[in-house]
Amino acid sequence: FFKKGLRLKDGRPTPYFVNMGMFKTGRLSLEIGSIFAAMMVERGISSEADIILGPSYKGSAIAQAASIALWKDYGLDIPFEYDRKEAKSHGETSGGGSMFVNQTFFDGCRIFVVDDVATSMATKYELLEKIELEASRKGIKTNVAGIGIAVDREQTSAVYDRDGGLIEGVKGKNAINEFVSRTGIRVHAVAGIREVIGYLYKSSTPVLIEGKRAVIGDVLMAEFEEYLSIYGAV
């Protein structure tokens, strides 16, 4: 949806948000799960993953949906996992303080991470740290086999001054390329934002614009393209 005054988590302005929370019925949940499952099978990821991990909150729903779809569509029974915002130390995790709900990690396990969007990749770095801490706590080794996202916002990372203040209107580094370079982990996207918005524009498909359903016109499309000229990754 498009709305004036929106801000990303890192503080940068944005004319739009991708709201995967709209996949909130059983039918739509299975649909997004089937899309991820197909991507995993077609790209050979399903044979390289022992666990599907979705960061809370929206990623957790995608992980479960993908796991269900892999079983329904391909007969592949792959466990799903998601993280806690705070460690649990009672119940099934008494004395453990686990940061992950289903406790599916085992020594040598290969983890495929799924999430709704990729922007600066900051939340992905945070999740990798959580995985490393959990592996250390359990005394095991884990391997992140890849990251799958529904929509790549195709953006650069934020730029800050010496005092840590955000500098607006300045193009940073390609966020995903930098992530891959730093971690060695491949990132797979179902679609890029240019492809998504381009399709919606050309097909005159209504979207939410300032709270009302309307088609993306030439003026809004120009604003989107101008935004990516500043913050978009090449």
Short summary:
This protein is an alpha/beta fold and 234 residues long.
How confident overall, as mean pLDDT?
Answer: 92
Q: Output the helix-strand order.
A: HEHEEEHEHEHEEH
**Uncertain stretches:** none
Helix proportion range:
25-40%
The CATH topology corresponds to Rossmann fold
Q: Which value, in Å, is the CA radius of gyration?
A: 19 Å
Q: Mind describing the biggest β-sheet? A: 6 strands, mixed
Could you explain how this protein is built, in words?
- The structure is a single chain.
- The chain has 234 residues and is of the alpha/beta class.
- It has a single domain, classed as Rossmann fold.
- 36% of the residues lie in helices and 21% in strands.
- It has six helices and eight strands; from the N terminus they run αβαβββαβαβαββα.
- The protein has helices at residues 26-42, 58-74, 122-138, 175-183, 193-202, 218-231; strands at 51-54, 80-88, 98-100, 109-118, 142-152, 187-192, 207-209, 212-214.
- The strands form two sheets. Strands 3-2-1-4-5-6 form a six-stranded mixed β-sheet, with helices on both faces.
- Strand 7 and strand 8 form a beta hairpin.
- Helix 1 packs across helix 2 (58-74).
- The radius of gyration is 19 Å and the shape is globular.
- The mean pLDDT is 92.
